[in-house]
Design brief:
The chain is about 30% helix and about 40% strand. It is of the alpha+beta class. Strand 6 (about 120-135) and strand 7 (about 135-145) form a beta hairpin. The longest helix is centred in the middle third of the chain and has 15 residues, at about 80-95. The radius of gyration is 15 Å and the shape is globular. The two termini are about 25 Å apart. About 25% of the residues are buried.
Length: about 150
């Protein structure tokens, strides 16, 4: 089943919030997604067989892309959707003139770190107390990938 990409819209938010709440202890809020749509960030849905299986939010400006959210529904994880969605994001960033892409990731998120490392991302910084984590805070690893301009 080939993935199909389409732009996110406000009608998608209920399904997105359901996925967020199922996969994250501290999910993005409806307001986070609404604000991203209103700011005209690159907000995309990936579907397989008509089912929403993942989504991404990317801000691209001044030659840089910032991957804000890349999520895959629990039942679709470990099936290559995250890797496919990341490839889509990298092409999107290149197509809109980004020379590099940055993201934050929880140090405890081994699966995401493995995905980003396999795509060539490297750690460039650590943001202290970035993420909520129960009654405390968790640091964020800042990862970066230099993007090559491709003709494809």
């Amino acid at each position: 089943m080939l993935p199909r990409y389409r732009r996110m819209n406000t009608a998608d938010l209920d399904a997105i919030i359901a996925i967020e709440e199922a996969i994250y202890p501290h999910p993005w809020t409806r307001g986070n997604f609404s604000d991203s749509l209103a700011a005209d960030y690159h907000c995309w849905i990936v579907e397989c067989g008509g089912e929403m299986v993942g989504y991404t939010v990317v801000m691209i400006a001044a030659g840089e892309a910032h991957l804000l959210n890349l999520s895959v529904a629990a039942s679709w994880q470990r099936r290559g959707i995250g890797r496919e969605l990341l490839a889509f994001v990298l092409k999107l960033a290149r197509d809109f003139g980004a020379r590099k892409i940055l993201l934050e990731v929880r140090p405890s998120n081994d699966a995401a770190i493995a995905l980003y490392s396999s795509a060539g991302f490297g750690e460039i910084a650590l943001r202290r107390d970035y993420y909520p984590a129960g009654d405390a805070r968790e640091d964020a690893k800042v990862l970066e990938l230099e993007l090559e301009k491709r003709d494809s």
